[in-house]
Structure formats: C-alpha cells, structure tokens
Amino acid sequence: MKTTKCKWPKCMSEARRGMAGWCSFHYRKRHAMGLTKMTDCAPVKAHIVKLRELGWTYDQIAENCPCNGETVRMMLTQDYKKVHPPIGHAILSLPLVARDSTRQTDDLTVMWRQLDAMAFMGWPQHVVCKMAGITPTRIKDARDRGTTSFSTIYAIDEVFRKVAYRQGPSERTRTLARGRGCVSVMAWNDIYDLNEPKPKLEKPPAAKKRISRIPWDDVQHLRSLGLDDEEIAKKIGVRPSTLRDSRRHKEV
Ligand SMILES: [Zn+2]
Q1: Residue 44 in contact with residue 63, Cβ under 8 Å?
Q2: Which residues have a beta carbon within 5 Å of ligand 1, which is an ion?
Q3: Where are the domains of the chain?
Q4: Relative to the CA of 163, which of 82, 210, 212, 241 has its CA 20 to 30 Å away?
Q5: pTM (2 decimals)?
Q6: Residue 77 and residue 51: Cα distance in Å, rounded?
Q7: What are the tens digits of pLDDT across the range 111-123?
C-alpha cells in the first residue's frame, strides 16, 4: 500500500486513509480549528438505516470506515446533525446489499430491554407502539418469530430515547413490570451493550424504622416516680404535645 506523508509542513506522520491527506493528529487539529468541512448527517443516517435493514451490524458498517461500530450506532441514536466527511463518505460508499449477521437477534435483545425499561416507567406496549407508529402485532410477531424489521427496531428506539426517563401514564403497567422483574434504563450502564448482563432487580428499600425521639425507658422511670406528662416532657426536653403524639404512634 502506498503511503503518503501528512500535508502539514514538516510533519513526518503518514496521512490517514479518509482524512484528506492529513495525519490523524493534524486532521483533528484542523477540525478543532474549524477548518474541516462537516457533512450533513441526514443522508448518512438514511444510508445506515438501509444497511441495517439489509442485515449489516454496526461493526460491519464500520469495517472500512475511520470510526468504530459504536460511533455508527451513535449517529443514529444521538441525533448527530453533522459528521466528519471521511466517515460520511465511507458509509455512503457502502453497497446496499444484504449481509449475513446477528443483527436481527442483537437488535431484538436490545428492543426487549427497551420495552421492559419503558414498562418499568409505566409505558404500556400499545402506547409505545402508537407513538412509534407501528401496530402492536409487529411486536407480537417479533416475539413469535424471533425476527423483525429494522424499521420496527428503529421506531421503538426513537420512542425509547424520548420517554425512557419519563414517568408513563399507566400505574398498572408499572406494577406488572416490577412483578415481571423488569429494570429501568437507569439500571443499565449501556442498554445497547449486548455483553452487559441484565442488572439485578433492586429491591425497594424496606420502610425505615421510626426512630423515636422519646427515651421511653426514661419516661417509664419518671412516671413510676409519680411525675405527670407535663413534668416528664420538661425533664426529657420535649414539648408535652410531642410526648402525647409520640405515645399515640407508639400506642402505649
Ligand atoms: Zn501531520
């Protein structure tokens, strides 16, 4: 492979593929200085969606691209408006042909996690489907067949990114989800990371034991000495009403 030197005067580094004749250091430097032209991300996103529909994984898309699969995924999920030209061109040059991959099962794994996390927050599946503009049958089919189209995955993902951190409308869904052992998106480090094991369901914290402000042993002792409530309260340093209320709570 022919290598060329970086265009920066006196720079001895090799020019990196896809970086317009600059080494990666100088490409980044020029980018920081605002000298690189950024490309509109929208057509790149559209191309990624098409490739995904054809079975490409994010890593497969990134194979010949000066970025990794994670970056490709972020382009879809982080609402990027602009992209580095070398990355954009590399992705746009990928042919729209079907590829064998684990994309289907990988995406479904993430989608089930997302639906569970949304249920945890009280978003019923039919509401999620409505917001995603798909029929609930699609989800049922996905469950039955173990496959689904990328457009379904993407539609659910878009809703997920909007609502996953917000409380949903259904208390019942929330309760059922907790009963099923669903976890919220907050429980995951990265809900998209297929290697991450499912977080353990956090048990709701046990109700805190009431810590009494009243030293009941002392109260009993003082009472045995024949003091009335007013005097006891004075002795232990609380208001008589506090003593009275606390006694009602303690039911003595
Ligand atoms: Zn350089």
Answers
A1: no
A2: 6, 8, 11, 13, 23, 26
A3: 24-92, 103-187, 216-250
A4: 82
A5: 0.60
A6: 15
A7: 999 999 999 999 9
